């Protein structure tokens, strides 16, 4: 007798794989997830999901899920109870604080976790441990966006909504490949370009989206600042600046203009490797469009001049008056589903919940009163500084939630050395990742499908995450784990409910003031949300958060990676993401997507391949000053001669053994996009 396949219930929640924040309608039968569809009434993704959102969910009950706490004893993990794990962690934390200080402990929160859990993690570190050593993975992706947009506009978040693609005449995609990394957004951009919207793509690779572009500026990796100055030069020379917007809303333009006009355009053209006439035509297209909007990704931020690049993207919008109305603005394509939220909730070492400066006396007093605890007022370690501190014995313990830093952070070997120096490494995880293997204690966490809360997508839309299935036996939601440890350490945190924590957040985060779980409804609300529950789809309509928008002069500086190493390592490797997999693959490699793409490959230009006698499918040894790996070659004209490109999803390749310690000087966001390298044909592993 055949069993009915009709679902017992359908539950709406939000995708965990990228900052587009697509809504999912999940069918559940007999307590198990059966399928995922796109709701037609979604504001974000009516009727549309990508390969990851629709199909890559079977990781949630995969046999590899960790289902009991583990403590490492004599080099091997031993199963323990939650009480034993809690006692051990708390006694180790007490010891480290007594023997050293609270600043010898640091935490990395997870931007895949809901706001409520991120809020609790930073509260735990600040109010219970007593340190500002808390960060999240925005450090290694969009920290330059947050800082660059705060400096120029006053707010480090997208100015508009993805829906505004409908109202724009020109789209600039800068250092992003949304077709693979934010597919639902990428499809909207592609559809617009196929109609009558002008598309400009700035990218060292000829991505699929670049094939739809009217202008593809295929610059040399790491030369964003030079390219943007060339772009500005032509807008000023062609008198396409918006004089009245500049006069009424901004400051610093005259000095900025003089700086741009003083630059040597022959030099800029040669640095970028892009024909000046193409840049000129693209600049004219952007500046003369009635409404132009930009989307930028990690190609803009993960460079030694990442913050400068973002400030230039913001300045481009300001100089052409493309701010404060539908169809314009500066719109970072946030990577993780809740990376906007992790920073909003205060998981960063200089700003607490709501971006309030932890060193400011008034803010400090406000937080102390609200948390009922003495708090540190000096800025804590950023993620790269945590590793450095661990290597120098200035850090004794780390607590990492849902981040596989060994595979995804730059210069992996250094990361491993740092983690192995610690007395205590607590990891909350679903699986035995490359990072979890180095843990002292592993706490089995629940996935997004097993928990409640809210995610904030890349357009500041706070949306409800609903529990689809019960947590697997033995696992707990991250928020519950942190709450129980806080209580174990004597802090009077109420028992965990996502609802209760959201109410607490609304009391301390000014732009969450009018948010309740109920009024978020199915479509969510875009912060800031006022007392009356009215949200804000467009920022900076009348004025900027900082008052006047600020222009800054920027000058191109070649990265030290190339200055020091390009003689011996003549190629540049640039890394990126693929459609089928998510970051380190911990989730997607445990779904049928694993069968679609089974390895990272290295793109090599045909001229380079010929010179080194390499054919597609050959194994190649690619080597940087930090390390080397063997990887399969794919001959491709998507990259220019001298440029190599690969994804970083497979731990078997571990491309981050090659990436460097060079960072954006303002935010310490690592430079994943420019790696000096050399290649040779190899026999493989
Ligand atoms: Fe999920 Fe992003 Fe795909 Fe939407 S575009 S389904 S949020 S991975």
Annotate the secondary structure layout:
Elements lengths: L8 E6 L8 E7 L2 E6 L13 H5 L14 E4 L2 E4 L2 H18 L5 E4 L6 H15 L4 E2 L7 H10 L17 E5 L3 H4 L1 H12 L3 E5 L12 E3 L6 H14 L5 H7 E2 L1 H10 L2 H8 L3 H13 L3 E5 L1 H4 L4 H14 L9 E4 L6 H6 L16 H11 L11 H9 L5 E5 L3 H4 L3 H10 L2 E6 L11 E4 L8 E4 L4 E5 L12 H11 L9 H11 L16 E2 L22 E2 L9 H6 L5 E6 L16 H4 L4 E4 L1 H6 L7 E5 L4 E8 L7 E5 L27 E7 L4
Parallel strand pairs: 6-7, 6-14, 8-9, 8-12, 9-10, 11-20, 12-13, 14-15, 15-16, 21-25, 22-24
Antiparallel strand pairs: 1-2, 2-3, 4-5, 4-16, 17-18, 18-19, 21-26, 22-25, 23-24, 23-26
Iron/sulfur cluster binds next to helix 1 and helix 6.
What does this structure look like?
- It comes from Methanolobus halotolerans.
- Residues 8-64 form the 4Fe-4S Mo/W bis-MGD-type domain.
- Keywords: 2Fe-2S, 4Fe-4S, Iron, Iron-sulfur, Metal-binding, Oxidoreductase, Repeat.
- This protein is an alpha/beta fold and 685 residues long.
- It folds into four domains: 9-61, N-terminal domain of TfIIb, CATH 2.20.25; 70-139 and 343-446 and 475-503, Rossmann fold, CATH 3.40.50; 143-333, 3-Layer(aba) Sandwich (Dimethylsulfoxide Reductase, domain 2); 560-681, Barwin-like endoglucanases (Beta Barrel), CATH 2.40.40.20.
- Helix content is 31%, strand content 18%.
- The chain is built from 23 helices and 26 strands.
- A seven-stranded mixed β-sheet has the order 5-4-16-15-14-6-7, with helices on both faces. A six-stranded mixed β-barrel has the order 21-25-22-24-23-26. Strands 10-9-8-12-13 form a five-stranded parallel β-sheet, with helices on both faces.
- Helix 16 packs across helix 18 (412-421).
- The longest helix has 18 residues, at 82-99.
- The model has no long low-confidence stretch (mean pLDDT 94).
- Iron/sulfur cluster binds at residues 15, 17-18, 20-22, 45, 49-50, 52-53, 182-184.
